[in-house]
């Protein structure tokens, strides 16, 4: 008997952006599907029509696309499946695993208030659970699941292992509201079954839902998927991740200048490990990924580690990939785009821009010298450096290097000889050169800039700053 193809899914609610925790859930689903040669599906859980907008759903698709988590079929809408959800609720009504409940909100609240006074927390027990249909009134009703009252409910989980609850702790879930709309609990199960989902990978805040949902699977005689409930992401203070910890949406990380490759690497390590490997490619993550390396404790978002991962991926990226990433960052951060010639210059300079760059803005800042045109705009510190003494020195340097062979060794030697004649160290001479060539105090090596700018542009910038 052949093993069925692995099918995972990511099922976000469209709240306007892709949360970083949701992005990691999507990543784990994607990695597992790719590792097993399966399918990764996407379902938008858009049943809350008051909060739903097409723009909110598109923001999630855009976030996934930026991360490079491509899905294998057209995304589905949970709202669009409402008729199917209602049909299943009525099928359960027919097979006796569900019943009509006519209790009003006031009666339910009265029951709960009495329970609090009596000191117990038993779930609501509907008087209609075993009522004769002949006694049903002509009144609005909900359809409830007939949950077991005795014994236990247990699930197997690839992360949490075996988890069980007393059956008495579960209430009879409402599956269809009195207005005929299906509830989330029913819709999720029906959708996962109909989509052929074999593995439900999600945050461990849904663990109790797995127990409840398993009852619906059993009531319908459907195979229960394999569950994997992963630990949540907390802030650096160990508390649940929120806006106070910094960026929570994927689009914010794109606008801050992190590469998608770096985000995939970093997010994969939040809760999952492969030995002591910290830095790895997406291909390696796919090859290694399984749930044996998944921990049970919440992971902590650490921006220092993220920056280190980001620096690694900037360092190893090809010039073309890094150029594309910088252009993507500029778009995400609403920075005016470059001309074709500027893009060519950016790519040409890439070998000198990536060193010691932690994020894409660092790369772009270092590239300012080659993207700028004369007159070079100078920052405040560069203006301070280019005082009358520095201008005199630059004037002398211009004469010293203008006839030099235009290669790294010759330029360095000519500059070193000139510095010695001025009783300066080469590092002291580099400060005004950097200010003149780039207008900034942070840039690639001054000799790398000279080579990239060429003789004529270098001399022109030095002359401009020495007058």
From TrEMBL:
Catalytic activity: tRNA(Glu) + L-glutamate + ATP = L-glutamyl-tRNA(Glu) + AMP + diphosphate
Enzyme Commission code(s) on record: 6.1.1.17
Motif mapping: 'HIGH' region: 12-22
Signal peptide, first to last residue: none
Highest taxon above the source species: Bacteria
Ranges for domain Aminoacyl-tRNA synthetase class I anticodon-binding: 339-464
Catalytic class of the enzyme: ligase
Stretches of the chain forming a coiled coil according to its record: none
Locus of motif 'KMSKS' region: 240-244
Keywords: Aminoacyl-tRNA synthetase, ATP-binding, Cytoplasm, Ligase, Nucleotide-binding, Protein biosynthesis
PROSITE patterns: AA_TRNA_LIGASE_I
Pfam families: Anticodon_2, tRNA-synt_1c
Residues annotated for ATP binding in this entry: 243
Subcellular location: Cytoplasm
GO terms for MF: ligase activity
Domain Glutamyl/glutaminyl-tRNA synthetase class Ib catalytic: 5-307
Subunit (UniProt): Monomer.
Role played: Catalyzes the attachment of glutamate to tRNA(Glu) in a two-step reaction: glutamate is first activated by ATP to form Glu-AMP and then transferred to the acceptor end of tRNA(Glu).
Family: Belongs to the class-I aminoacyl-tRNA synthetase family. Glutamate--tRNA ligase type 1 subfamily.
Protein name as annotated: Glutamate--tRNA ligase
Gene, per the UniProt record: gltX1
